[in-house]
Design a protein that fits this description.
The structure holds 2 protein chains of 2 kinds. Chain A is of the alpha+beta class. Chain A has a single domain, classed as Winged helix-like DNA-binding domain superfamily/Winged helix DNA-binding domain (Arc Repressor Mutant, subunit A). Chain A is built from 4 helices and 3 strands. In chain A, a hairpin with a 5-residue loop joins strand 2 and strand 3. In chain A, helix 1 packs across helix 4. The longest helix of chain A has 28 residues. The two termini of chain A are 28 Å apart. By secondary structure, chain B is α+β, with helices and mostly antiparallel strands. Chain B contains 27 helices and 23 strands. In chain B, strands 1, 2, 3, 4, 5, 6, 7, 8, 9 and 10 form a 10-stranded mixed beta sheet that branches. In chain B, strands 13-14-21-18-20-19 form a 6-stranded mixed β-barrel. A 4-stranded antiparallel beta sheet of chain B has the order 12-22-11-23. In chain B, strand 6 and strand 7 form a beta hairpin. The relative contact order of chain B is 0.10. The interface between A and B is medium-sized, with 18 and 21 residues.
């Protein structure tokens, strides 16, 4: 583990959650695991920010939640993307890409 | 408060969900740790550690779900109730003031709602119209419609679903132990259909019952059913004997069905094909029609006018002369009281406004006392918005409690109103229901804004609350322009109301002082049941009434007796156009006079003096051919009449009118061949109502004035009601089959006729008195507050040798100067709004100087007393004590 674990950039957590939930219904524990796996352990999500974010997104209507049985047989709250959330994800993705391109461009030309 | 519970309940469910979501996460982490080879204990410990503070996260989640508006509203409500508990007397004053203000307002609104706003209590009541016929060439009033014409209208028009009609007559029902007077409505076919009503028990009239020669059927009212049959459902099918004919009861109408009026006992169908109903000259029916959906009154008028024009071609005499009139039935019933009700509503709203102004002043004073609390809250970081909301919530809670109590006040006031206004139309429909509750609630919201907004905004001004928090003690100036302005506004509004009440009172007085040209006191009036069927034989009818009057005169204690179609002093108008048969008639000067129908004994009974000539003599009769049913008709011929002095002065016919003959022009009740000879001149009497000067009037002498059921007038030596039983017994002796009813002294009838006037005056005076008291309480409170604040200054001045008289004078002048300004403004307002009262005043002009100046004087006097108390209290201060306290 030569790489430091970084905290998430402000505002990107919502986008990451939406992206992961877009793949299929998933519970909070699953989301935190998935973020760590997908980012190859670089990104560490604090539970303290994950759950409030999930609830906020649910309240905004971007996520829908249902209670169901997990792989381990326990009752868990599963989140899935709503139509509104799908639109929001597209919007945030395109904004993120534009921002990333712009930063990349600055980094290349400045060097 | 149900939403409180709901919120609590939801909170519990939410809490459970949060916990199990967090628990799931930790359980999964534990499992993962076990899989990684840890002991279950260790795995759990590490999982909890990794997850972080579970409680902290849950708190954050709660934060996400918290409904801020409601939570802060609850907090505000709690603080409002705390505020009320902390200052109970202050809150009680506000609540009681608002309860009275909102209660009175809701009570008047409930009357307006029931009488003016709601449709008539029939299905789609707004489709109901009153139809009438009139002759546009003469100024004759709308007349009733012939049965054949009603049927023509119903058949030929295309604007109405159905048209029907009714007329009222009283009958005597003799199947019981004693004859009972019954109020009958004779109805054309389709009567219930027009009104959209159906019997509560039994059925509507059948086709056979609406044909001549069919079975006699009658519908009875709920009231009659309960009175006569004690609510026995087997009453349907029983027989009644009315005016000698037997009728089967086929149905009982519901209690809510009170048409044409609340006294109606029976409904009897009149067959349109009866031989006695065929003349187009008859004026029988008040016609009602139900418009087709989405049809306007205008379209219906146009349509019916076309129909009438067609009838005019088919029957030139008399249809060509007639035009049709259409008005909403509701307008006919309640149009007369609209203005009175709105004036009452206006004054009661002014009252509420004064009450609110008073409360504003109270809350403002309160806000200065709370400056410390408010600045503490500011310094703790509360936003101004939050503080304004808090203060407004306090005002709302006060207003809400006030409105809730106000509903009780409204309930009481409503029943007072009903007893005062028994003669108003639709009074029986006034009730307190959901609409009134909603209205009171709306009032409380309006009151919250009126009372609370200004003090809330002023009370939370940051710089002031900051600086005054420390300056409190050393402050000397008691000047508070806003509060004094409020007092001025109250005084102005109170003066306006008092001026209105004063004008009404003065006209009421003026009406009482009128010498009407007749003497109403010690006159007993009543009816004796009769039927229009008697009019086929005018001779017999005249002889019967004559005999009755003679018998009445023979009763000891009776001075004189007469009969009349109308009552003197009770407003009624009956204008006829007349012309002299002798000499040339000037076509430019139409002779339009009031007509009255009386027996000759009327003048002695009413003490209307005969100025010259003589009274009418015995009438003469002629017989007309027998009708198809074989009844012999008799009619009056050679009519005689008297004119009043005003007539003789206005229309001089040579030296004197006595001996001249007058003929009615185009009058539906007086046929052209009815020519009357003027026999004498009598004094002017206010026949058209106590509030109208006597105009040119013609008295037509009839043995049976206005038909078989005139008013009987009996002048008694003693108190008239004491004679009521004697009169009743006398009639029973001579006419056992007839009932005497509706016995009342004449002055009471005249009073009743002005009941609306009395109601207006009483209520407005009451509102005005309340308004003046409120304004004085406001003045007193503000001045007392000012005295309190300036205690130190007063103490200093007294210590420095100021005279106590000077101190009194100073505060007294402060109070009075505001009152004077308020009075001037109120005077202006009163003048501006006096137009609303015009037409309701008698013998006093809307801008009457005496009334206005005495109103101002009264207000100044009361204001002086209200100011004197705090002023004297200021002067009685002990300077040493005040200075020591500081």
């Amino acid at each position: 583990m030569g790489v430091d674990r970084s905290d998430l950039l402000q505002g990107t957590l919502d986008m990451l959650i939406l992206k992961i939930v877009a793949l299929g219904p998933v519970h909070g524990y699953g989301i935190s695991q998935r973020i760590q796996q997908v980012s190859r352990e670089v990104l560490q999500v604090q539970q303290g920010s994950l759950y409030p974010a999930l609830h906020r997104l649910e309240k905004r209507g971007w996520l829908q939640a249902t209670w169901g049985e997990s792989e381990s047989g326990r009752q868990a709250k599963f989140y899935r993307l709503s139509a509104k959330g799908r639109k929001q994800l597209q919007l945030e993705e395109s904004q993120w890409n534009r921002l990333a391109e712009a930063i990349a461009l600055i980094l290349h030309t400045a060097s | 408060m149900p939403w409180w519970w709901k919120s609590l309940f939801r909170k519990r469910a939410l809490e459970a969900q949060l916990s199990s979501e967090v628990r799931f996460h930790i359980d999964e982490l534990t499992d993962a740790n076990i899989a990684a080879g840890m002991s279950p204990m260790e795995a759990r410990r590490r999982a909890v550690l990794e997850f972080g503070g579970g409680e902290q996260i849950k708190e954050e989640l709660r934060d996400v779900h918290r409904v801020r508006v409601i939570e802060s509203a609850i907090a505000n409500l709690k603080s409002a109730f705390r505020f009320i508990r902390k200052s109970p007397s202050f809150s009680a004053v506000i609540i009681v003031t608002l309860a009275l203000g909102i209660g009175a307002n809701s009570a008047v609104f409930s009357a307006i709602d029931a009488i003016l706003l709601r449709p008539l209590p029939f299905p789609n009541g707004d489709q109901l119209m009153r139809l009438g016929q009139y002759n546009p060439r003469v100024k004759s009033p709308q007349t009733f419609v012939a049965p054949v014409r009603l049927e023509d209208w119903n058949r030929m028009n295309s604007a109405f679903q159905v048209i029907s009609g009714y007329y009222r007559d009283d009958g005597s029902e003799t199947s019981g132990v004693l004859p009972e007077k019954v109020a009958e409505a004779f109805v054309a076919p389709r009567f219930l259909q027009v009104l959209g009503a159906s019997p509560a028990l039994g059925r509507d009239f059948s086709a056979a019952e609406e044909h001549f020669g069919g079975p006699n059927a009658v519908l009875i009212s709920d009231g009659f059913w309960r009175r006569r049959f004690h609510g026995d459902p087997n009453a349907v099918g029983k027989k009644l004997r009315i005016n000698g004919f037997s009728y089967s009861i086929i149905g009982i109408m519901p209690a809510s069905f009170l048409f044409p009026d609340r006294d109606a006992d029976l409904w009897v169908p009149v067959p349109p094909d009866a031989p006695y109903a065929q003349s187009r000259e008859y004026t029988w029916y008040s016609v009602i029609g139900r418009l087709k959906p989405r049809m306007t009154a205008e379209e219906a008028r146009a349509n019916l006018t076309t129909v009438q024009a067609q009838l005019g071609k088919a029957f030139p005499k008399p249809d060509a002369d007639l035009a049709v009139a259409i008005q909403p039935l509701k307008e006919i019933r309640v149009g007369g009281v609209r203005r009175s009700l709105w004036i009452l509503f206006g004054s009661v709203s002014l009252l509420l406004l004064i009450a609110c102004t008073n409360i504003v002043a109270l809350l403002l004073a309160r806000a200065t006392q709370r400056q410390h609390e408010i600045s503490v809250r500011f310094s703790l970081g509360a936003s101004r918005m939050a503080l304004v909301t808090q203060l407004l919530t306090e005002a709302f809670v006060l207003a809400f409690i006030g409105a809730a109590l106000g509903l009780f006040v409204a309930g009481g006031a409503s029943s007072v109103f009903r007893s005062l206004a028994g003669s108003l139309p639709r009074v029986e429909e006034i009730r307190l229901d959901g609409r009134i509750v909603m209205y009171s609630l709306a009032c409380s919201v309006v009151a919250t804004i009126l009372c609370g907004l200004l003090p809330a905004i002023r009370g939370t001004r940051r710089n002031i609350s900051g600086s005054l928090a420390q300056a409190n003690r050393t402050q000397v100036s008691g000047r508070n322009p806003l509060q004094w302005t409020l007092v001025g506004v109250q005084v102005a509004l109170a003066v306006t109301l008092l001026a209105g009440a004063g004008l009404l009172l003065r006209s009421f007085q003026a009406l009482g002082r009128v010498s009407p040209g007749f003497e109403a006191s010690q006159v007993l009036t009543f009816h004796i049941s009769a039927s229009y069927g008697e009019t086929v034989d005018w001779k017999g009818l005249t002889q019967r009434i004559d005999r009755t009057l003679d018998e009445l005169r023979s009763v000891p204690g009776v001075e004189a007796a007469g009969a009349s179609a109308t009552l003197p002093g009770v407003p009624s108008q009956y204008q006829t156009e007349l012309r002299f048969t002798e000499g040339e008639q000037d076509p430019e000067h139409k002779m339009v006079t009031e007509s009255r129908f009386i027996t000759p004994g009327y003048f002695a009974t009413m003490k209307i003096p005969l100025l010259s000539g003589e009274l009418c003599r015995e009438p003469k009769f002629i017989s007309t051919p027998a009708d198809p049913t074989g009844v012999q008709h008799t009619e009056v011929t050679a009519l005689q009449m008297l004119v009043n002095r005003s007539f003789a002065d206005t229309y001089p016919a040579g030296s004197t009118v006595i001996g001249h003959h007058l003929q009615a022009v185009d009058n539906p009740f007086l046929r052209p061949r009815d020519i009357g000879e003027v026999r004498g001149i009598v004094g002017d009497a206010r026949e058209e109502g106590m509030n109208r000067e006597a105009g040119p009037t013609v008295y037509w002498c009839f043995g049976a004035p206005g038909g078989p059921d005139p008013f009987y007038l009996v002048r008694t030596h003693a108190e008239p009601m004491a004679m009521a039983e004697t009169v009743r017994e006398k009639i029973r002796e001579i006419e056992p089959a007839r009932s005497v009813f509706d016995i009342k002294p004449l002055p009471e009838r005249i009073d009743d006729a002005f009941a609306e006037n009395r109601l207006r005056t009483v209520l407005l005076s009451f509102f005005a008195a309340t308004a003046v008291s409120l304004a004085c309480i406001g003045l007193y409170g503000t001045l007392s507050y000012s005295v309190n604040v300036r205690q130190r200054e007063v103490g200093l001045r007294l210590a420095l040798g100021a005279l106590r008289g000077q101190i009194v004078k100073q505060f007294l002048l402060q109070g009075l100067s505001v009152t004077v300004v308020g009075c001037v403004a109120g005077w202006g307002l009163a003048l501006a709004s006096s137009r609303m009262l015009s037409g309701m005043l008698y013998g006093v002009s809307p801008s009457d100087l005496v009334t206005l100046s005495s109103v101002v004087l009264v207000v100044l006097l009361v204001a002086a007393i209200a100011s004197l108390v705090p002023a004297v209290r200021a002067a009685r201060l002990d300077p040493m004590q005040v200075l020591r306290e500081e």
